[in-house]
Amino acid sequence: MKNIKTYQHKKILVLGLAKSGVSAAALLHKLGAFVTVNDSKPLDENPEAQGLLEQGIKVVCGSHPIELMDEGFELVVKNPGIPYYNPMIQKAIEKEIPIITEVELAYQISEAPLVGITGTNGKTTTTTLIFEMLEAGDKHPLIAGNIGTVASGVAQDATTDNTIVIELSSFQLMGIDQFKPRIAIITNLYDAHLDYHGTRKEYIGAKALITKNQTEEDFLIVNADQEEVMEIARNSRAQIVPFSTKKVLESGAYVMDGWVCFNGEKIIETKDIVLPGKHNLENILSAVAATLLSGADKDAIHKVLTTFAGVRHRLQYVDTIDGRKFYNDSKATNILATENALAAFEAPIVLLAGGLDRGNSFDELVPALKNVKTLITFGETAEKVGQAGRDAGIKTILRADNVEKAVPVAFEHSEPGDVILLSPACASWDQYKTFEVRGDMFIEAVHKLK
């Protein structure tokens, strides 16, 4: 890593722990900063804070005392999930203390170039595809960000021989200063996280920050089928690389005559691609563009796309039992993601859906349910999702206590050739700690059928 002197002897507050805060605090301590960590969880219940304390880092736990902001901090490193209306953050803004997120630190110390992926849907799949393709092409990639590995930890071990492929949320991007990916991707933009951002305009503005520091030497890969994404591109200094699933482009990535193409060159026939779903073509096109721009070849792309069946919990194939194919799409925590999942299959579908009630109706889901023969609902939104099913004319609508109990019910009301799909259209927090836990429970229940 670059042994930067930027933070030497500076007084810095790391606000909120979790994995990103722990990594940021330890890194800043290593770089010679005077670090204070503040986390709401009490010290005796906070092994992460205890570990930092053992390293000689000052720890304030159990609450967020506003008077802490009077201690002369020169920088705040904020957990991405902490909103800007938080009193501690408001106090920092009032005192004109710079506020960053941990990905900014990762960029500043990284010897490796970055490929940054953001957007509303498809980030994880696109990030994973690029990583797998670069690995198949012997390009020594490292994977980081929202996908599970803290970027500042990965960056410490990266060299000039590596490429860091990093999934980025709008929350993380709001806290950047110098951060600049050599290749940036905006997959698509839809309404999301408006409880955090307040308005769609603010949300899109946060996503646009991925390209704010890019120059003419960098690349911005964008969805040419969305005007809001193209508007961001028009304001970027980077070289624009468009992709489209709907039209043939003069340059960039697109589909023509059954082939995925890039800059006029045929890369792979779509019939050879294992990953299901029309929406995944967007992810594939952007990943192909990023991979080729990073120096990998067509063989690496072909190897991955003929074997890659999806990331865990995102339209993940689980098993086939008595002619029924089971798919785990637990990461579908909004209606759009479930619409995309339903569009991926032509076979009759038995859909498992429901979860946390955020107050919205499911009217928008109704047109996408045309291929659903049986609907099994669960969680707080069971009745609302069931109403959408009735509006769609689904004849068999059943209710289960949870995902585990929904699986055998789904099997009982299915036939050979059917797809049994968990795609909840809701967050998991009413019944499960994370969507990963929910998906794991689905997988376990499927295996129990055997």
UniProtKB/TrEMBL annotation:
It is found in: Cytoplasm. Cell wall formation. Catalyzes the addition of glutamate to the nucleotide precursor UDP-N-acetylmuramoyl-L-alanine (UMA). PANTHER family: UDP-N-ACETYLMURAMOYLALANINE--D-GLUTAMATE LIGASE. The keyword Disulfide bond does not apply. Its EC number is 6.3.2.9. It is an enzyme of class 6 (ligase). GO terms for molecular function: UDP-N-acetylmuramoylalanine-D-glutamate ligase activity. This is UDP-N-acetylmuramoylalanine--D-glutamate ligase. Pfam families: Mur_ligase_C, Mur_ligase_M, MurD-like_N. The lineage of its organism: Bacteria, Bacillati, Bacillota, Bacilli, Bacillales. It comes from Mesobacillus jeotgali. Belongs to the MurCDEF family. InterPro entries: Mur-like_cat_sf, Mur_ligase_C, Mur_ligase_C_dom_sf, Mur_ligase_cen, MurD.
